[in-house]
Write a structure and sequence with these properties.
Layout: E1 6-12, E2 19-22, E3 30-38, E4 41-47, E5 50-51, E6 55-56, H1 60-74, E7 82-90, E8 93-103, E9 111-114, H2 115-122, H3 129-135, H4 139-152, E10 156-157, E11 163-167, E12 170-173, H5 190-195, E13 205-206, H6 213-218, H7 235-239, H8 249-271
Parallel strand pairs: 1-7, 10-13
Antiparallel strand pairs: 2-3, 3-4, 4-8, 5-6, 7-8, 9-11, 11-12
Helix pairs in contact: 4-8
Length: 273
């Protein structure tokens, strides 16, 4: 039975056809995607870092559900994800793993375009990416992305991971999506997770910002820092519900430390003004 986005039942998804996507952030890894149509709607699936000999060796799909729950609590508009216990087949080999699923966020009649392509099509001469976002009325959404990515240590907010939705002559930004390369995605063992500095400023891709999550969030004018809902210690049980048998205590403890320390840092920054 599905509970808050996690379905622990082992279900057969061997019918899905997985396409290969190299990690766009430059980190070594192979990430597989698939989709299907049900009742006229598309459902998109993603698999964590995959190795053809060892199977799934990452936990990016679990990061998606953690980010989903965190953003829900904080009031940040985002795409909802589901975490599914799945039997899959890749190139004739069967694997048991966890995959993430999300619905198509386009409304009827809308088409989508990656933000980097949209910028290239409609930018003015010598207009920077942030100037373009301001002209389009999306300055606040850019700042909200900075904050969201800072909180989860998202390394991969490049221009194809932000989309613009078009309906006639009307445009809107898609909700935030694709948060797999966040938190402890680079850690493969409990020892690595335990050593991870929750305030580490890792190099990132940010379409409108710099390579530093700290620099990006500190670049927001004080009066425009987004106000988030307050996080409490009790929220831990909501964020990690049904994940204790999927991620180890070392990973869960460190992810919670990341969330709380970065949220407290951000709140201190916001109240300095």
């Amino acid at each position: 039975m599905m509970s808050h986005g996690v379905d622990p039942r082992l279900s057969d998804y061997r019918y899905l056809k997985w396409s290969h996507r190299r990690n766009s952030s430059g980190t070594v890894g192979t990430f597989l995607k698939a989709y299907e149509e049900r009742y006229g709607k598309k459902i998109y699936y993603k698999m964590s870092d995959f190795d053809y000999e060892r199977g799934v060796i990452g936990h990016e799909c679990i990061n998606e559900i953690i980010a989903d729950r965190l953003f829900y609590l904080l009031g940040i508009d985002h795409l909802n994800y589901r975490l599914l216990h799945a039997k899959v087949e890749v190139d004739g080999k069967e694997f048991e793993t966890w995959i993430s699923a999300s619905d198509d966020f386009k409304r009827p009649g809308e088409s989508k375009i990656a933000l980097d392509d949209f910028y290239d099509l409609f930018k003015r001469e010598n207009e920077t990416r942030m100037q373009f976002m301001k002209r389009m009325g999306w300055e606040g959404l850019s700042y909200l992305m900075y904050v969201a990515d800072f909180l989860i240590i998202n390394r991969d907010r490049h221009g194809a991971n932000i989309e613009v939705l078009k309906d006639g002559e009307s445009y809107r930004m898609a909700p935030l999506f694709d948060h797999g390369l966040s938190f402890l995605f680079s850690c493969k063992s409990d020892e690595e997770a335990e050593r991870f500095d929750p305030m580490r400023d890792v190099p990132v891709q940010s379409f409108t910002g710099s390579r530093s999550l700290f620099e990006n969030v500190k670049s927001i004018p004080v009066e425009k820092l987004p106000r988030l809902r307050r996080l409490e210690e009790d929220d831990r049980s909501i964020i990690f519900e049904n994940l204790d048998k999927i991620l180890s205590p070392s990973f869960l403890d460190k992810i919670w430390e990341i969330i709380m320390k970065r949220w407290q840092y951000y709140e201190n920054l916001r109240h300095q003004g």
